């Protein structure tokens, strides 16, 4: 399985996937930390995350896959939502909570 196939399998295999630097318990950058906090505040229970610092192939290839250059990268229902700024905007507008609630109905 190529790294791009693995990325796709992870995105399709979980309703919410966050590719981040570090882990939810120990984020290794402020953007990843704020994104995790917003997701938890929006009602995301168990987060499926991929630590790109421990996965150099994913870190190198995800920007090509998603056409998004930076981390973190949030995917909901297989769709790229964006990074920290977009996640924070969605959280503040209440939209992120709605999107998270939809993933938990499935």
From TrEMBL:
The keyword Iron-sulfur applies. Residues 16-81 form the Glutaredoxin domain. PROSITE patterns: GLUTAREDOXIN_2. GO terms for molecular function: 2 iron, 2 sulfur cluster binding; disulfide oxidoreductase activity; metal ion binding. [2Fe-2S] cluster binds at residue 29. Keywords: 2Fe-2S, Iron, Iron-sulfur, Metal-binding, Redox-active center. It holds the Pfam family Glutaredoxin. It comes from the Bacteria. Glutathione binds at residues 21, 59, 71, 84-85. PANTHER family: GLUTAREDOXIN FAMILY MEMBER, MONOTHIOL GLUTAREDOXIN-S14, CHLOROPLASTIC. Belongs to the glutaredoxin family. Monothiol subfamily. This is Glutaredoxin. It comes from Pseudoluteimonas lycopersici.
